[in-house]
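#struct-queue
[09:14] JT: dropping the first one here, sequence first, then the C-alpha cells:
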Amino acid sequence: MVDQKTLAYINLYAVLGTLENLCELDPAAGDLLANKKPISIGFDVKGGPSATLSFKNGRCRLEQGVASCDVKLPFSSCEKFNGLIDGTVTPIPSKGFTKIKFLLKEFTALTDLLNKYMRPDPADLYDDEFFAISTSLMFYTITVAIAQIANNDKVGIFTANLIEDGDIEMSIEGGPSATLRAKDGRIVTLKCKPDNPRAVMSFASMKLARDLFDGNVNALECIGSGAISMKGLISMIDNLNRLLDRVAVYLA
C-alpha cells in the first residue's frame, strides 16, 4: 500500500528535489534560468512537507520551510500535492501572483525536462551522455526517497529503527555517491560521499545501476558475482535493502 503522506514527502524532496542535480548536470536546464532574476517557489502541504525551491544563477536549491519564498503554493492535503506531480491538480498561488509567468514557463520546462530523464524514451538511452544523466538523476531520487520512506512510511519506520547509527555509502563506480546518515531511527540523505562510512554499497558501473533500477537484473545474483560490492556492517546494508524494496513500491 502507498501512503499518501509518504508519497508527498517523496514527491517534494526526492522528485522535485532532483531539480538541484538536473541544473548541475544538464546545461540545457541552466540555460532555462539564464538571465533570470532569482526566484523561489514554496510548496506548503497541509499535514505534510513544506519546502522551497530557489533558483539563482542557473542553479536550483531545495531548502526547508516556506517563510521566505517569492511564490507560495498551498495544498490542502497530501493527495492534492501528489496530484500536482501526476498532473491532475493545478495549484493556485497564495503569494506571488505577479511571478506566475515563471511557474508557467521556466518551471514547467524544467519539470518536463526532468520527466524526460526520469521516464525516458528507450531510444534516448542509447546516447551515452543522456544515459549518464538519466541514471545519475534516478540515483539521487532513489537515495533521497529512501530517507523519506524511513521517516514516514510505517514499514520504513520499523526498518529504520533497526539500523545502527552511522553513515551508509551508496555509490556507482564512475558516477554519483550519496550518504545515508542514520541516527536514532531516522535517516537523512546527503548528496555526497561520506568520510567514514560504517557500511558501503557500491554498484560496479552505471550500466549495472541502471539495469537494477529498471528491474532488468537480479540483485542477489549481482551480489554473488561481485557486481554489487558490500562492505562494513552488513546488517545496515540488509535493512537498507528492505527500504529499497519500499522505494520500488512508491516510484513504480
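[09:21] JT: and here's the second one, same format:
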Amino acid sequence: MNNYTTQMDAAKKGIITKEMKIVSEKESMDLKKLRKSIADGKIIIPANKNHKNIDPEGVGEGLRTKINVNLGISKDCYNPDREMQKVKKAMELKVESVMDLSSYGKTREFRTKLIDIYSGMVGTVPVYDAVGFYDKRLFSITAKEFLHVVEQHAKDGVDFMTIHAGINRQAADRFKRNKRLANIVSRGGSLMYIWMEHTGNENPFFEYYDEILDIFAKYDVTMSLGDACRPGCIKDSTDPSQVEELIILGELTKRAWEKNVQVMVEGPGHMAINEIEANVVIQKRLCHGAPFYVLGPIVTDVAPGYDHITSAIGGAIAASKGADFLCYVTPAEHLRLPDLEDMKEGIIASRIAAHAADIAKGIEGARDWDDKMSRARRDLDWKLMFELAMDPEKPSRYREGSIPEDSDTCTMCGEMCAIKNMNSIL
C-alpha cells in the first residue's frame, strides 16, 4: 500500500512514484529534479487514483507545453455520440488532455465512459454539471449540493477540476466598482457571481475550500483554479478585477499545497500581444511558480471564424514566456459548438503554438523534429516530409492536388526550385 496521498505528498517525502518515472522518461528530465519540482508545486502530474488506464503527463516548468481540448454535451446540441467521436479524434491526434464541459442530460454516463477509454488527463468543471444534474434554478442549488458534485467527479476518476473559488464576495464587489466593457465572460465565473447575488451568500467554492481540498487529496485530483474574471475582450485585460482575483488565487494555491493538493492556475482570455509577457510574469510571481493554464490568449476581437489563429498567436507568446498548458480554441469560438473539423483545426493550431514555444524555451529535443524536417526538405524526400508533418493528411492532399512536371519539385517553382538546383551545383 502506498504511504502517500498525492503526487505532491510523495515528492515531499522523497518518494519516486511510477507516474514520476513515466513522466521523467517522456520528458528526458532527471528524476530527482522532477520530484523536487513536484514538491515545490512547479510541476504537476494530474492522475486521479481512480483513472485506471491513465498514461501520465507532467505539466509545468521545464516540460513540453501541453494542450487541452474542450468538449461535452449541451442542451442545444444533445449528441453524446458525436462528442464521443471528438474524444476518439483527440486520442488519434495524441492530445494530452480533454475537458468534459457537459451541462445537460446523462452527464455522468458520458463522463465515466470518457474516463474509461481516454488515457490522457481528464478535466471537468463541476459547476456546469451541477446545473444540469440537479435540474433546478441555479440559485436554488445549495453549497452542500455543489460539493456533492465535486466529490462525485473525484470518485469517477477526474484528474483535474476547474474550481471558481477566486470570485468571492470581495472580488465581486471590486468587479462592481470597476466597470468592464464585456463584464464577466467565464461561464463558471458568471454562474457563481449570479449565485452570490441571488442568495447573498459567499461563493461556496471559496467558503468550503478546505473541504474541497480534502476531497482532492483523497483521490489525488489536481486543483485547476478557475479565472472567473478573465478578460473577455482586449479592453478588459489586466484590469483590477483580473488582478484582484489573481492575488486570491495565489493565496488559494498555498492553502492547497499545505494539504498536498497539486495546483495549476488558469489565465486569460482576451489580451493584446504587448501585455502577454507581463501577465505570465505576474501570474508566476503571485501564484508562486504554479503551472499556468491559458485559454489563448486571443489577441484581437475582430476575427470570428478565425479565433484558432488569434489564439495560437497568443498561446505561442504566452508559452514561450512561461505558460505551461494551452486550452485549444477552434474556428467556432463564440459562434457554435465545434464540429469534428473545427476541433481538428483547433488542435493543430494549438499544437503549432505549443511546439513553437517549446523551441523558444529550449525544451530538450524540441528542435530535433524541425531539423529532421529540414533534412527531408533538403533531400526533396516528399514521403518523409509528410510522415514528419504535424498533420500528414493536409500536405499530402495539397501535393496530390497539383502534380508538377518534375516529380522532385512542386508546381510553384518547377525547374527554378532553389533546393534542387543547389543540390545539383553542390
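[09:30] RK: nice, looked through the second one.
[09:31] RK: The mean pLDDT is 96.
[09:31] JT: good to know. Residues 366-425 form one domain.
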